[in-house]
Design brief:
alpha/beta, 2 domains, globular, single chain, Rossmann fold, 25% strand, Zinc-binding alcohol dehydrogenase family protein
């Protein structure tokens, strides 16, 4: 006897300032290129936690009420007619793209029990990876991949092509963050040596992800320490993550040999001004938008072609550690507050078990 499809509910954000409300919502039917997933865990991201005028500034295209959430993990319930690489019952993690401008669809927001996702940014999971841990991946992975691989960012070769570029270095500033944890691993998978910064308590974590050298971003002479670690090798590019990271990246890039490209994962008005000034000095600074792989070739290259095998054989880890703070849609507002209060080297996750 076939298992009946469960009812659907979503956590709706009624306006840019709130409130949130759990409401019944239709069970979706997949169109071409889509997959319907029964959500077992979701992670929350800083973009979910913003509110008021800032939300209008970051995603002005979003129509309210809406459903937030980008990071989901669960089981496939249905696939579109042209989806051949996934089947009903597969365990997956996916980038729920409802808040992205090309999609702008509440049915594709991750804060619900049954969600529509795009096949091109969905990854089959190995059996030994829990849904809660897998949910830490999608947006952070996409953001790191955008910064490293998109043509208007660092434009590095995609992961897994087998080339050894160990004489070239990717600098990851903020490597213990969610984006940084993925950037370190992707850069290594593309054959590069990684030099990174993180708080001293997270150095072992960042080394375990593949960084050759890890410096404490709080050190008074951290720029000089990073420059020393780069000496004698070419800088292939820099991923700058977090407040204050761009200033350090600019100073280091001016002193280093190699590519003068910086991808900033902390876009703000100051970044735009400093980017124009830096260009006069031969340094190219670009602001990363984590949703770009939803529509670019980078998405399927990373989510479909690279990640399933890399997770299965241990070349890539779902990092950072999941911090499960509750279960059910009703726990999500509290999870967002936990994120606002601050976490280090962990990602806030909510389980969705029945």
């Amino acid at each position: 006897m076939a298992t009946p499809t469960p009812a659907n509910e979503a956590l709706w954000l009624l306006g840019p300032r709130g409130p949130f409300e759990v409401r019944p919502t239709p069970v979706p039917t997949p169109a071409a290129g889509q997959v319907v997933v029964r959500v077992r865990a979701v992670a929350v991201n800083p973009v979910d936690a913003i509110t008021g005028p800032l939300r209008r500034l970051v995603t002005p295209w979003v129509r309210f009420p809406t459903v937030l959430g980008s990071d989901v993990a669960g089981e496939v319930l249905a696939v579109g007619t042209d989806v051949t690489d996934l089947a009903v019952g597969d365990r997956v993690t996916a980038f729920a793209a409802g808040q992205e401008k090309p999609r702008n669809s509440a049915a594709e927001g991750g804060f619900q029990r049954i969600v529509t996702v795009l096949d091109r940014v969905t990854t089959r999971l190995p059996d030994d990876l829990s849904f809660e841990q897998a949910a830490v991946l999608p947006l952070a992975l996409a953001t790191a991949a955008a910064g490293l691989y998109e043509a208007d960012q660092l434009a590095l070769p995609l992961p897994g092509d087998g080339a050894d570029r160990s004489d070239q270095v990717v600098l990851v500033w903020g490597a213990s963050t969610s984006v940084g944890s993925n950037a370190v691993q992707l850069a290594r998978a593309s054959g590069y040596t990684v030099v990174a910064t993180a708080g001293r308590s997270n150095h072992d974590l960042v080394r375990s992800l593949g960084a050759e050298a890890v410096l404490d971003y709080r050190d008074d002479d951290v720029d000089g320490e990073v420059a020393a670690a780069l000496r004698g090798r070419l800088l292939a590019g820099t991923i700058a993550i977090g407040s204050g990271s761009l200033g350090h990246a600019l100073r280091i890039t001016r002193r280093a040999s190699g590519t003068k490209r910086i991808a900033s994962a902390y876009p703000d008005p100051v970044t735009a001004v400093r980017s124009r000034i830096a260009r006069l000095r031969g340094i190219r600074v670009s602001a990363i938008w984590g949703g770009t792989p939803v529509v670019s070739p980078v998405g399927p290259a990373v989510f479909r072609d690279f990640l399933p095998g890399a997770l299965a054989d241990g070349r890539f880890r779902a990092a950072p550690e999941a911090m499960v703070v509750g279960h059910g849609l009703e726990a999500l507002p509290g999870a967002l507050q936990t994120l606002r209060d601050g976490v280090s080297a962990r990602k806030v996750v909510v389980g969705m078990d029945d």
